[in-house]
Amino acid sequence: LGMGRVPIWPLWTIVLLMRPLGGLGPPLCPREPFYFLLAIMKMLGNKNGGTLYTPDDFSVCPAETLGCFRLELSVIGFEEGPSVEIAVFRLQRLLDALGSRLWGTGPGPCPPCEGHPQRPVPLFLAKLLELLQGACARHLPSA
After folding, report:
1. Is position 12 within any domain?
2. Domain span at 74
3. pLDDT tens for residues 104-126?
4. What CATH number does the domain containing 119 carry?
């Protein structure tokens, strides 16, 4: 007499409540890019004496700025050897995926990567971290 039937409404209630809280689907700002960026920063420390083109203004051309950071990361991977190169490659893939969700193409005109000032590698990485933190903070759902 109905013992095999389970009411389904509690399940739908849970699903509907989880959706606005971000319980379904991938988070807008996953942790992985931060993990790989911090790992690269830790692996390098202050030992890399090189400089990289480092964008300062993220608001004018956000997608292009991210592209510059991505290109310059390749230099770090090439110069520092296999362990750093693997972390750089993974970070670049994550930035590609994240960038398409967070940034649009700028209204123009966007300077080439070589038009940005050259900065030491630790400062370059710190600026990339600042960019990611700022973009993720802007896209957090308001409570």
Report:
1. no
2. 27-138
3. 665 667 888 999 999 999 999 99
4. 1.20.1250.70
